[in-house]
Amino acid sequence: MSSFSIPFLTPPCSSNTISSRPKICLYATPALSPIVASELDASRLEPRVEEKDGYWVLKEKYRVGINPQEKVKLEKEPMALFMEGGIDELAMMSFEEIDSSKLTKDDIDVRLKWLGLFHRRKHHYGRFMMRLKLPNGVTTSAQTRYLASVIRKYGKDGCADVTTRQNWQIRGVVLPDVPEILKGLAEVGLNSLQSGMDNVRNPVGNPLAGIDPHEIVDTRPYTNLLSQFITANSRGNPTISNLPRKWNVCVVGSHDLFEHPHINDLAYMPANKNGRFGFNLLVGGFFSPKRCAEALPLDAWVSADDVIPLCKAVLEAYRDLGTRGNRQKTRMMWLIDELGIEVFRSEIEKRMAGKQLERASEEEMVQKEWERRDYLGVHPQKQEGLSYVGIHIPVGRIHADEMDELANLADKYGTGELRLTVEQNIIIPNVENSKLDALLKEPLLKEKFSPEPSLLMKTLVACTGNQFCGQAIIETKARALKVTEEVEREVAVTRKVRMHWTGCPNTCGQVQVADIGFMGCMTRDENGKVTEGVDIFLGGRIGSDSHLAQVYKKGVPCKDLVPIVADILVNHFGAVKRNREE
């Protein structure tokens, strides 16, 4: 297999009323006591994987006690479905034939996630969600039209979502269409490679990169390089495709911390050092059903030229040393806890090709006393005469005709570019000021995707929910909208309140960073009947004073939510109850 290269730029939870429901984390769990290298058995720092036939596989002696997903990877290399054309053969098989063999059944249910394809066996048998790679959330009108053309053919099963990692997910895909879809993606400069399972997820950056008058650094060159490295320029990168678990990365370019660095496995924080520009590093942030943790300082700084070598070294240390047993204890922070931050740091330095990893800089560039700005609505760009317009996509859900219309608006009023955000909204950049009035009068913005939604709607986030996701316990998107609409009739708010919904403890909706979070569960109503409910989280913060939310109330039936949420808004966020007669 040929090599590749790219240029570089200069505490446990109590159970709830339903005993079978999973436990959830309440707090950001602190790291364990530091360990020095001399206290570790030397064998613990022996790499647990080895290269074999061009792929990285778990060594024989480390295969005892591994989890089922690791066994699936050992039985057949997932990347071969892409790199050796296995997807073409699989796409020609009937589902009856596929399901008759464990190997091919695992192909469609597990290994295809390495191609960004998620089989919805539980609720939509034979249909797939496809997750794209979209570094920094930047996309084009041509790309948007192509995705619209894909989902349109699937009728009511076809739709798209803006995700909390600044990218697209499209729904309704059927297996026979996949080879042709992959070719179409490549033709418009997109790919879905290595976007699921034990891979690096979409690199997140500042959604206002390059246009923000107050930006620290344009994050697009770095997120693009990261994406190119992660997928080896869309050819597939097997050196980092066998991680112990998923892994998130972001590059911060704003004082607003739109990029949410504290919940990423690796976050690049801009900092100068001795007249050189570079980044301090945070590591280990993550959410999971059993534990949530904020990223820790690595006490390391890299120059802008070393963004990719550093990322490669961190990934290789995690790949080599991470455990592969209980999936709830295989995210990178668990490895940091076990080794201690200094040993983990030294293992990264070992993999930096002879370079010394410098200590963190004291010249941090992010202003800690900074009020997070609102990017929805009309805002001036750093380029004279141009503005960007942030529009609200209710809970991130969008359909083919709407995608086509957005693409048309980007061409007509901007430069054919759209920006996706982690709050599931979209920005149209580069609009001439003389065209703003006409854009704001467009029916799509007047009737569906408003630049000026209500204070509660503008920051509302919801995961897929059980409409499409087999892991979700409750329906989220429609319910989030309905509850918010009803709450708005009960109370008036004077400031934004970020409300996030997630269908299960996997917390794709990131409830722990919300002012008010709702995590799906099964509970009992006043008559003892099992019903859909939520655990309510309160007090999450984003920005330099980030803090993960704590559970406020557990097992609330969804039908009882409106008055409870209204009271929370009054008691904690200064809302005022409306006079119903008025």
Automatic annotation (TrEMBL):
Record NCBIfam families: PRK09566.1 (NF007125)
Top-level taxon of origin: Eukaryota
Family, per entry: Belongs to the nitrite and sulfite reductase 4Fe-4S domain family.
Name used for this protein in its record: Ferredoxin--nitrite reductase, chloroplastic
Record InterPro entries: NIR_SIR_4Fe-4S, NiRdtase/SiRdtase_haem-b_fer, Nit/Sulf_reduc_fer-like_dom_sf, NO2/SO3_Rdtase_4Fe4S_dom, NO2/SO3_Rdtase_4Fe4S_sf, NO2/SO3_Rdtase_FeS/sirohaem_BS
Residue ranges of domain Nitrite/Sulfite reductase ferredoxin-like in the record: 121-188, 379-443
Organism, as annotated: Lupinus albus
Nuclease found in the keyword field: no
EC number annotated for this UniProt entry: 1.7.7.1
Catalytic reaction list: 6 oxidized [2Fe-2S]-[ferredoxin] + NH4(+) + 2 H2O = nitrite + 6 reduced [2Fe-2S]-[ferredoxin] + 8 H(+)
Taxonomic lineage from the root: Eukaryota, Viridiplantae, Streptophyta, Embryophyta, Tracheophyta
